[in-house]
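Morning F.,

Quick status update on the modeling queue. The single chain you submitted on Monday has been processed. Sequence for confirmation:
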Amino acid sequence: MAENNTSLFYEFKKGLWQDIPPFRLVLGTCPTLAVTNSVINGIAMGLATLFVLLGANIIISALRKYIASQVRIAAYVVIIALLVTVADMFLAAKFPPISKSLGPYVPLIIVNCIILGRAEAFAQKNPVVPSIMDALGIGIGFTLSLATMGFIRELLGFGSVLNIKLLGEWFEPWIVMILPAGAFLVYGGLVALVNYISSRKTPGTETL
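Structure tokens below.
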């Protein structure tokens, strides 16, 4: 039982650092760059992706023995498209401003490599519970990545986060941070930071 719990915890925690999608696997870069001009947009996109990823992993894992290998990709796309439609309609109904701000990027979750990748690499090979843990880890890691980028860009671009002023009147907003160029600058900086931290070695330990 303890070994099983350890395995499940590993499936969860790997998505928080080891396999964090934007910075380690370089997946999901389109929404990462496009919608992270604010924290709320990053969180909303991350949670929408988490919902779709979790639902897809559960359904695909549960039906993996009944989906013929010849049509599995087509079946995955249909399942993912259904879940994306639900997420898109929910955002449009409950949070119209956020839905409008995210624009076409919620529907584009259908072709997000993270979703299809986890379906093909993990869910169709593993039982439901490990697939749930895998989806939660990857989804939360993705959400935290978008929120981090959104925090940095919003702070430097406006001097505030979530309409809370964090930098004084002395601060001159860096307009570039809320433009596409700012997204690439922050993304590149975070990828470099993650790679630097991962490459560090300390005596008697493995690579962090």
